[in-house]
Specification:
single chain; 465 residues; alpha/beta; Cytidine Deaminase, domain 2; six-stranded mixed beta sheet; 16 helices
Length: 465
Amino acid sequence: ELTGFPECLDGRVKTLHPKVHAGILADLRLADHREQLADLGIEPFDLVVCNLYPFTETVASGASPDECVEKIDIGGPSMVRAAAKNHPSVAIVVNPDHYGAVLDALNSGGFTLEQRKRLAAEAFAHTAAYDAAVASWFASAYAPDGESQFPDFVARTWQRKSLLRYGENPHQSAALYVADPEQDTLATAEQLHGKEMSYNNYVDTDAAIRAAYDFAEPAVAIIKHANPCGIAISPAGGVAEAHRLANECDPVSAFGGIIAANRTVTNAMALQVNEVFTEVICAPDYEPEALATLKAKKNIRILRTGSRNRRRTEFRQICGGLLLQDGDLYQAPGDDPATWTLASGEPADERTFADLVFAWRAIRSVKSNAILLAHDLASVGVGMGQVNRVDSARLAVERAGDRARGSVCASDAFFPFADGPEILFAAGVKAVVQPGGSVRDEDVISAARKAGVTMYLTGTRHFTH
């Protein structure tokens, strides 16, 4: 009816017609444009409302490549971009959430220029995100570079969710952006109580989730400055016992910390949490009584987030560039305890071996150079972020105190010298798990044999920076 021309090619060509695009693109402020429309018999548009073909949803559904290609919209983005370009004359709406405001505007005389500018900005962002999704799918899935798992082209769009009070420090501005508002992640977590999240809250909560959600067993991690004050699991006692053990690791540092639990928070755990000043607690859910208990503390931030928090691809911005890598998800062969090599001492008994397995999984959450001492499935001393491994060993032993005796140790990378292990052995550490691979491995292993300490080599490193 509008164009006098039927759609064709199975609907691929419908709106790509001068009577559509001239009506959208005509700048009605210009007499020449108005005259041309009159001569051509084309009516101008005041409003364009357009929803694009569901390309990303089609890809996510597992549809075939041909089906995905068919869901690449051509006419829709063309109309959206045309209307957005001509925003002095046309209002463009791409978000159904705005339909109510659109009706209000139509009933009150139309849109102001400022409103049309904002709608145009949203429209260009919408088509940019759409094109980025298509281009990324082509580069990574449909026509990838066969020589690399990393695509030639990476594009991702982010939508601002909130402005933060400030950044890492008060003189820095900051905001939170979300990649996919529909995914259940930290960025989209539901805040049930407390003050607004800060930049540092998000950084530390991300580290806490990374630590706690790595375990299959009920686990709790307490974090300060992106490092664990304590990590523990409790297959029998649940999150309340795991929290008690994690807090015991370093109760001084736990003050003002961030807590993550990988199970529903019970009231028993909530009562314990309320005994120590806590900035944030994050978990998949909360018992009603636990939530009421926690809310008795006015300022504690209570977050509910699901399990979609493991980053399979990690991005790090550097000056002028972006680094991509696989997420460290314990996918290396050496992460399977069955592959570990006994380098010294007697095979660990079942309980000691369980502590070694726990410590090896927990060490990934500690900033390198990292040493973690554990006993009864809980950390008892953590040495993190030191520029040499011997200082990390010394710090872990100092933090553990008397608890170092009879504990086990995990090291995120090999010991370059025997000096670090000798500090551990002198403190009473009875078993060690570490990657191995140093040119002085034999010196380290010899020191372990001399001390009668069991030592396993994994062949896998877990640096965290």
